[in-house]
Structures are given as structure tokens and as C-alpha cells.
Write a structure and sequence with these properties.
nine-stranded mixed beta sheet; LRR_dom_sf; globular; Leu-rich_rpt_Cys-con_subtyp; alpha/beta; 7 helices
Length: 204
């Protein structure tokens, strides 16, 4: 008579093989999106740590929200893929602070697109970005009301490849933006549906 493993043993083998398959697929994942999902630090960081080829990470929130904190950003910053990330969205992740963002951008030095709109970051994060992310091209600061003109000045000087910044909702006088455009003639500043380009030409 042929011996057959008990059902629990079969289930265990299936689960193990399924887990191994997921881990193998995760290694080659280029994009990961948790947008709108109820996720936490352990969930996101655990998957990012196994995604060795990851280039684009989206943790933006929706009406359901998520609970990502500085601890989660710290773990992501230590992941093998972090130095190769080209795009990160932290849109509306209000539990993060400058400490977490600084940890992340100090390691994510290949960033070209960064969305930290709808958060409470300050010039501390902006200055860290200016020092660590020279390849940055597109930055969303929508509603980041604690960012000042001094932070944007440091950003424009430190990130020569910047092409676009969403500055809607920032408490900065409109005239202050002229200095940024004089430093980087290619830069466009998005304020709602209007873009301010070189020589203050409005592009709709």
C-alpha cells in the first residue's frame, strides 16, 4: 500500500511552495503599489525588502488610508533596492515626519520622481532632498504648507535636473518663485491648473 501524507502535511507543502513562488516572483518585481490599501510598516517594508529589482514604489493613501510611519520608511531605506528606486509616492501619508523622509531620501539617491504631497514635511526634508537626489526631475509638494521659500531655493540649487514642482497650497508669495525660475530656466512650477515657466509665461 502506498503511503499518503496526511492532509495537514499536504497543505503545509502547498503553502511552502506557494510562499517560495511568491518570494521568487517578488525578487523580479519592478513596480509595487499599495495605493489605497490598509497597510502598515511591517507589510510594506517586508515586501520591499524582498523586491530586489524594485524601481517604483507607491504607498499613496486613499479614503481607506494606511498606517506608514517613520519606522517603515527607515526599513525601506535599508532595503537592497532602495538605492535603485527611481519613483516613490508617499502622497497623503500624514503619519510620516521629516525624520523618516530624510532616512529614505538619503539612501534613495537615484530618485527621479518623488511625491510627498499632502504631508506635513518641512524644509528639513527639502534640504535633504537637495543634497541627496541630484537626479530628481519631478517633485510633488501639493499642500506642504510648512515648506518655505528658503527650502525651495536650496532644492533648485541642489537638483539641477528638476523639471517640475507642484507647489499648490504652499504659503509662498507668487513673486518669490521668479528667483527659482532664474536659477533653472527649464523649471515649471505647477499651481493648480496653471504652470509658471520661464519669464512668467503661463502655460495651460
Amino acid at each position: 500500500m502506498t503511503w499518503r501524507p496526511p492532509p495537514t502535511s499536504i497543505a503545509s507543502q502547498v503553502c511552502r511552495k506557494w510562499k517560495e513562488g511568491v518570494q521568487h516572483a517578488l525578487k523580479f518585481r519592478i513596480k509595487l503599489s499599495f495605493s489605497g490599501l490598509r497597510v502598515d510598516d511591517d507589510c510594506v517594508a517586508g515586501l520591499v525588502e524582498g523586491a530586489y529589482s524594485l524601481r517604483e514604489l507607491d504607498i499613496s493613501t486613499s479614503r481607506w488610508g494606511c498606517h506608514i510611519t517613520d519606522a517603515g520608511l527607515k526599513r525601506i531605506s535599508l532595503a537592497m533596492c532602495c538605492p535603485n528606486l527611481t519613483s516613490i509616492s508617499l502622497w497623503g501619508v500624514t503619519a510620516i515626519t521629516d525624520a523618516g523622509v530624510v532616512d529614505l531620501v538619503s539612501k534613495a539617491t537615484s530618485l527621479q520622481h518623488l511625491n510627498i504631497g499632502g504631508t506635513f514635511i518641512t524644509d528639513i526634508s527639502i534640504i535633504a532632498i537637495s543634497k541627496c537626489c541630484q537626479r530628481l526631475k519631478i517633485l510633488n509638494l501639493w499642500g506642504c504648507r510648512h515648506v518655505t521659500g528658503n527650502g525651495l531655493l536650496a532644492l533648485t540649487n541642489g537638483c539641477p535636473n528638476l523639471l517640475s514642482i507642484n507647489v499648490w497650497g504652499l504659503r509662498i508669495p507668487l513673486d518669490s518663485y521668479s528667483c527659482l525660475l532664474s536659477i533653472n530656466p527649464r523649471l515649471h512650477l505647477k499651481i493648480g491648473s496653471v504652470q509658471l515657466g520661464p519669464h512668467w509665461q503661463a502655460v495651460h
